[in-house]
Amino acid sequence: MFSALARVFKTPDLRRKIWFTIGIITIYRIGAFVPAPGVDYGAVQQCLELGTTEGGVYSFVNMFSGGAMLQVSVFALGIMPYITAAIIVQLLRVVIPRFENLQREGAQGQAKLTQYTRYLTIGLATLNATTLVATARSGALLGCDIPIIPDDSLWVIVLMILVMTSGVALIMWLGEQITERGVGNGMSILIFVSIAAGFPGAMGEIWTVQGWRTFAIVMLIGLVTITAVVFVEQSQRRVPVQYAKRQVGRRTVGGTSTYIPIKVNMAGVIPVIFSSSVLMLPSVYLQFNQPAPGEEPGWFSNLVQTYFSGGTHPVYMAVFFLLTIGFTYFYVTITFNPNEVAENMRKYGGFIPGIRAGRPTEGYLAYVISRITFPGSLYLGFIALIPLIAFVLIGANQNFPFGGTSILIMVGVGLTTVKQINAQMEQRNYEGLLR
């Protein structure tokens, strides 16, 4: 491993890109701890020490901000507005034909979609910043009676919203700089860093509070989970495709064999994010609709409090599991179009051996996608439940480090980044990073 790292840093161009990426990451992590204007940093730290936010409805979003959200910093919103905007733009391709046409136009159309994503990100960031400031002002964010915004005048509130929105724009720019001048996809790298930043604290808390036995069990679960995730993420069904020979001018082209790689987990981490967000809504509703003193809570409040507040009830786990499966099928359906793939194959003279071109090919691809999505959806469902099951069995923190969204993102980004580094080394040397 050390010899591989030495080979990486011996390549001047690659070394320069890696150091540039590390520099951007350092700036991003510093911004996560710079308090927004008007925020009493000492009061925030007192509320965090009380542990009133443990397992709260904001823990999921806080994970994607690297802990910056509960610090109420200038980067409090993190990368989440961009993730949401990117998902919305991708889903709108199914509804708006203009977006679908832009996707087919190649690099120029993709640049236009990226611009739309940026605009939508700023809009969502403004909305999220307003909500975050309102919850911080009321004390609902940290669940603490200590005021963290001493001066809640209109000017201070507007300034906080502008600074947090500008923080999201700066994060977008930092991510794009990593993509253009660094290593890997910038946004993915920043998400990876945000999640990884919480691992030392979570593992240290498990060691301190629950002892070395629980710590050893958690590490074992982590190794097994990472191994399973790497195995499934690398697994794919290869559908063979042959291209017939055809005459183009005086040249004969075609006659080659290739395959369509269909991953077991084509949806990535998106279904887990969808499911977590949907199940977060009842708790958010309950938090902002508390019954008046002396008033009995309604049936919906009782339902949420009983089954959906702690996240460890069997009903909650079952709904989470089923939602993940459903969203997996939904997302794969809108991102992989068998009709489009079959049409492109027919246009260039390609066919699947034993399957006629056209509609039979479309039906066969839809059949393969349906069959392979089923184990992929079960895999996502089980991975998403790991932190909840660990909380019940070993009493680990609800923000269990090894499981769910965190491991899926970290392993996926890690594998992709290593492959990119390996490809860049092979361009300059006969030997790459991976032997």
Automatic annotation (TrEMBL):
Keywords: Cell membrane, Membrane, Protein transport, Translocation, Transmembrane, Transmembrane helix, Transport. GO terms for cellular component: plasma membrane. PROSITE patterns: SECY_2 (PS00756). It is a multi-pass membrane protein. It is found in: Cell membrane; Membrane. HAMAP family: SecY (MF_01465). PANTHER family: SECY/SEC61-ALPHA FAMILY MEMBER. Component of the Sec protein translocase complex. Heterotrimer consisting of SecY, SecE and SecG subunits. The heterotrimers can form oligomers, although 1 heterotrimer is thought to be able to translocate proteins. Interacts with the ribosome. Interacts with SecDF, and other proteins may be involved. Interacts with SecA. Belongs to the SecY/SEC61-alpha family. This is Protein translocase subunit SecY. It comes from Nesterenkonia xinjiangensis.
